[in-house]
Amino acid sequence: MTEGRAGSRFSARWRILGWLMLSTALVLTAMVISVSSALQARAGHDANDDVAQEVAEFRQFAAEGVNPETARPFTAAEPMLDVFLRRQQPGQGEVLLGIVDGGRAVMSVRGADTPARAEHDVALDTDLLGSDDTSGVAQTPAGELRWAKAAIATDAGESGHLFVGNYTAPAYAEVASTTRLMAAASIGAVALTAILGWLIAGQILRPIRVMRLTAADISREDLTRRIPVQGNDDLADLAVEFNSMLDRLESAFATEQRFVDDAGHELRTPITIIRGHLELLGDDPLERRATLNLVTQELDRMSRIVTDLLALAKAERDDFIQIGGRVDVAELTLDIDAKVQQLAPRTWVLTHVADGPARIDAQRVTQAMLQLAQNATQHTDHGAEIRLSSYFAQDETGAPVVVFAVSDTGPGVPAAEASTIFERFARGTARRTVGEHSGAGLGLAIVRAIADGHNGSAFVDSTPGQGATFGIALPTREERI
Ligand SMILES: Nc1ncnc2c1ncn2[C@@H]1O[C@H](COP(=O)(O)OP(=O)(O)O)[C@@H](O)[C@H]1O
Ligand SMILES: [Mg+2]
Q1: What DSSP line would sit under 186-250, residue for residue?
Q2: C-alpha of residue 440 to centroid of ligand 2, in Å
Q3: Which stretches of the chain score pLDDT less than 50?
Q4: 10: helix, strand or coil
Q5: Residue 126 pLDDT
Q6: 436 — phi, psi (to 5°)?
Q7: In this predicted structure, what is the pLDDT of residue 121?
Q8: Model-level pTM greater than 0.85?
Q9: What Å distances lie between residue 407 and 142, 260, 390, CA to CA?
Q10: Is the distance from the beta carbon of residue 266 to the nearest atom of ligand 1 less than 6 Å?
Q11: 375 CB under 6 A from ligand 1?
């Protein structure tokens, strides 16, 4: 069943889950990357700032030139560096060196996580100490070092340097471990999303799954199953719609089944009659002729039933009613009047002729009117008056309609039968004057199908004992505004 269908092979649940996980993963990945690179940039800046700040502090200290411990001025570089450095608390990765006599480190302080070989690195790197630059970035065996130095000269002619360095590796390592932590948390979040998404999608899609299973279980023979409706959301609406579709299908199949049963029954009767007569057929020519006559009549009836059944079957199709263009109602009425004259010797009277156009199927209207006229002849005696008419009117909603009607002076229709006789195979109790038992009860059903096909209606008006008026009212749409 699945081959040849475009679209995803994956179930809705998987697709919802997939998109959910993909978007969560993308958002979290973007977050981890951007936070991590921001932290990294910040670590670099902080290292520079720290170095610059220490140097500035020292410059100020040196400019004041007073030993805060003795409140006397410094006279030599070494104690100045010594006092300054003792009072410092270097930060992470930081190293401060006091250097006198062009390279001898007399004093050093290190911060937390500063590589143990820091002084060694700096001391080895004569480029750093000897260069004219006052700050820079150096690559050492312990990693990147951001540094700056400040020179001092005392009155005694002694020279010295304060060297401030900051190894960025510890800070970067911290960024890396934060990043790892964030990545791990993100993976956890995606996993949690997956579990929750799977459960929630399953919960939301449950009615659809139930619907699918129910639909798979429903067969033509058993249309009684319905989907349980839960909640009040759009899926509940879908279930309600689905159930009402099943209601319609069930009733359509039931109607069709009844129709087939009734049709079979109606056709079997004439067959039984014909067979019975043929089996008992004797040699008497008179009897033979009578039997032949009867058989022919029954065959005619069968043929009529089959024709009517075909008409009703066709009524289900879209092309049953063919509206080509405007039909001149007056001309159509006169045509019908001419045709009904042939049905039976009655006093046919045309009481009213609608004058104007209408968008209707002239052939089907003629068929309906002939059907009604035939019924009228079957319920009236020789020479009785049957009136035909067509007129424009308004239906109960006020919409313009064109009405075609046939009135007779027969027994009429009892009120209780008025609504049922339009059903298929429905026959009333009215006494017939012609062709007793001849109808299968399909005539009025065809009339109603023709009216329905025009979105109109078929009706009967009758005072029992004083005749009946049968007719169809068809909307004329834009023609009569
Ligand atoms: N002009 C009429 N006067 C009285 N009763 C009628 C008239 N036309 C139809 N009926 C009633 O409606 C029933 C159904 O008519 P129809 O559908 O044409 O079937 P059929 O003619 O085969 O019986 C008839 O059996 C009859 O009882
Ligand atoms: Mg009939």
Answers
A1: HHHHHHHHHHHHHHHHHHHHHHHHHHHHHHHH--SS-----PPP-SSSHHHHHHHHHHHHHHHHH
A2: 8
A3: 1-2, 479-481
A4: coil
A5: 64
A6: -50, 140
A7: 67
A8: no
A9: 115, 32, 12
A10: no
A11: yes
